[in-house]
Automatic annotation (TrEMBL):
TM segment ranges: 20-41, 76-95, 107-125, 145-166
Protein name: MENTAL domain-containing protein
Top-level taxon: Eukaryota
Organism field: Kalanchoe fedtschenkoi (Lavender scallops)
Keywords: Membrane, Transmembrane, Transmembrane helix
Length: 208
């Protein structure tokens, strides 16, 4: 009986370790994939909400062209998802061009902050005009709720971009700090050091 109990206990421990490993891998994947996942959400979510608010119509290229030709800042909503798409495209493009030092203090953080703040200002200025117009008051509660969700999602995703960029910046700075400590320890001990990459990182950190 004791043998079977020990075997069951060992099996339970192995299952727990496997689950812990899988959960850790999933969390790590989400952390490192956060910029890409956020860009996908920022591209699709506002567009999907706008399309749902246009029921029974849907958001197609023809519909977008028609909405743009009749664009009015005080009434049109097509610019909200378009801003999200443009914001996401520029941010992911800059992110793909940056390496460790540039992710820590460089164009990625600056670009993300600038675009997010600009879109926050634009959407915040637009919201009072949209929700105070007479045409909006005549719409049903469901449609108005979707329009509110459109603005909230755009604002929330803009803030999320800044948070993700800041966390990535902190993570890369910690990595550079570790590299710097390792390099200085090696150089202080007068041991040959041939890694050009680490020397470059150390030089860039000292120049900042």
């Amino acid at each position: 009986m004791g043998f079977f109990k020990d075997e069951k206990a060992n099996k339970a421990v192995r299952i727990a370790k496997t689950l812990f490993f899988l959960i850790s891998m999933a969390i790590s994947f989400l952390i490192f994939s956060a910029p890409l996942l956020l860009v996908i959400a920022d591209t699709l979510l506002p567009s999907a909400i706008l399309s749902a608010s246009m029921h029974p119509n849907s958001l197609t290229l023809q519909t977008i062209s028609s909405l743009l030709s009749q664009y009015d800042f005080r009434r049109s909503l097509i610019d909200v998802p378009l801003i999200s798409v443009i914001r996401s495209a520029v941010i992911i493009f800059v992110y793909s061009l940056c390496d460790g030092p540039k992710l820590s203090r460089g164009p990625y953080m600056a670009t993300t902050a600038m675009l997010s703040v600009a879109s926050l200002i634009f959407v915040s200025m637009k919201a009072p005009f949209v929700f105070s117009s007479a045409g909006r008051l005549e719409k049903g509660a469901y449609c108005r709720a979707l329009e509110v969700a459109l603005f909230v999602s755009s604002l929330g995703l803009a803030v999320a971009h800044v948070i993700v960029a800041y966390r990535i910046s902190c993570r890369e700075r910690r990595k550079l700090l570790v590299y710097r400590i390792d390099i200085e320890a090696v150089l202080g001990g007068k041991i040959g050091f041939s890694s050009n990459r680490y020397q470059k990182l150390l030089l860039e950190e000292r120049l900042k």
